[in-house]
Amino acid sequence: MSHDTTSSAPASDGIRFAYWVPNVSGGLVVSTIAQRTDWSLEYNQRLAQAAEKAGFDYALSQIRFTAGYGAEYQHESVSFSQALLHATTKLKVLAAILPGPWSPAVVAKQIATIDHISAGRIAINVVSGWFKGEFQAIGEPWLEHDERYRRSEEFIRALKGIWTEDNFTFKGDFYRFNNYTLSPKPVQKPHPEIFQGGSSRAARDMASRVSDWYFTNGNTPEGVKAQIDDIRAKAAETGHRVRIGINAFVIARDTPRKRPAPC
């Protein structure tokens, strides 16, 4: 299946599938079991090609500056995403972005360029941050929980403005722009897709106002439904549309039952 490069999302509202890109060594699950994935570029390019052939729509990279859950080595997400795009033809890759280390001006320029190079196959996942030690290690100020989401919302509003307007001016608490015009604008219209996650009240409120996609993770079916209903109700108040993604896991193991004899 192919993506419409004149729009930031596929035309169909059917189910789409994504996978986590192992651009880190381990750290994909909270487990002491040795991970079978490989963080190398060669492995990841083969994995992306296999996922594309199997019909996956998205690949989601990770951003880490320090080890977490055993992820000792970490490839940077934006440049690694671009390498995966060069190895595929249809797959859309989500580059994880962390406000603080990145500024909206840099991200807007980077992603617009990659959008042209890849013919509209790049998106971003805005990660508000959760690990204080990581911010301290790289000399970034640490904001309290709700302030991190408030910064992320400004970050997304700034990105949207840069990607869609000329002479963009923005006066926020965290970011300022004065008559800035990005040229060229991204291929995708109105702009590349913007994803986010988080289960807190602040995360859900942010998604209902500015994000294209909201990831939810780790809840009962009833809990997930309550989150979705909550976000959609809040989004409806402002006329915003947000799509929902759910993090799912498949447990694959040998069955104790005897396999039937082939016909």
TrEMBL record:
GO molecular function: monooxygenase activity
Keyword Oxidoreductase carried by entry: yes
Domain Luciferase-like, residue spans: 16-256
InterPro entries (alphabetical): DMSO2_SphG, Luciferase-like_dom, Luciferase-like_sf, SsuD_RutA_monooxygenase
Keyword Oxidoreductase listed: yes
Keywords: Flavoprotein, FMN, Monooxygenase, Oxidoreductase
Protein name: Dimethyl sulfone monooxygenase SfnG
Organism name: Paracidovorax wautersii
Lineage summary: Bacteria, Pseudomonadati, Pseudomonadota, Betaproteobacteria, Burkholderiales
